[in-house]
Amino acid sequence: MSDDDGKTRPPLPSIPWREEAVADASFLAQVVDTVAHPIFVKDRAFRFVLLNRAFAQMVGFSRAEMLGKTDYDFFPAEEADFFRAKDTEMFESGRSVNIDEETITDKHGQRHVLSTTKVPLVGEGGRVTHLIGIISEITRLKAIEEALRRANEELELRVEERTRALRAAQEDLVRKERLAVLGRLAGGVAHQIRNPLGVIKNAAYVLERGIRERGATDDATRAIAIVHDEIDRANQIITGLLEYARVRAPIRTTEDAADLAREALDRVSVPADVRVEIRAELTPPVAVDRDQVCGALENLLRNAIDAMPNGGTLVVETRALGKWVAVVVRDSGGGLAAEVRERLFEPLLTTKATGLGLGLVTARTLVEGQGGRLRCVDAGPPGAVFEMLLPVTPSEAPAKPS
Which of 26, 76, 301, 305 has the most crowded CB, counting CB atoms within 10 A? Predict the structure, then answer.
């Protein structure tokens, strides 16, 4: 025996064939029962008239329980309503209905995700007599899709976070480079500016003395006062530059925190409409560099005073906190805006028209150099509260020089 290609094929085995077997109901039921996909058949009254082993195993009910009954006898009403609507659509249209995704809850309460095709079975006269349902369970596939979706979302979040971190790092590098340039320029430029300012200040004193001797007018007096104020302001800016550019290693001595607070207050100019309260508790001595801590406190005090242009109360507290001594500076001004709070200790951030935004940065650097901490504990309103934590003197710290 040969095929069209000329090759010889072995003869096919002789298999007994009985057409009766095809029509035999038990044979068909066995075929359907062997199929791995869940299969069911419903009549026009939506009753189950046939279902295979895979379907019974999936839903957890036996065939004896389900035959002759409807979806409403086994499944939640919401699911049964959906099944009934799709069955009705198929019977009325006479066409197959494909359901890409639906859920069914089994006897034990476990939900399965299905992809179902409902096919019409046409009898004599072309009338649809039954519905054949063929199911592919996609529960695992949907679980994998959900896991993949979550993994993608997490990856996107990580990429976004990483992008933000890289952007912040880039901005920080640019800011540090600007500050490095500022630090290199600060020393030389500050001295070159400070010398002319000293000459201007001396000249202003000479003019002031001459005006007094000849009878000063109010306008002249105000003009001289403005000159002195602006010279002092310029000197403060130069001092800030120098402090930021040349933070030296601390020279620690044993100090009393309340004494440091009073000395810092003596160094700043407090307006007449600002009332000062000192609340000093008995605290252990601290091991710090006196000049550096006073310089940091001066920055905090000036900021507090500037925050109260119309007057108010400036409170300075000292209290013991375990291994720390806290020095707290509190004002009664309007508080800090939200956008300022988030970037409070960033260099070059300032709300003052003539400020450089180095005061708080320098203060924190000086305090951290002592092994301490500086933070804003309340941004208000009303007022802002800054807390400086200084380390208590260890036993080996050098005594305060007499």
Answer: 301
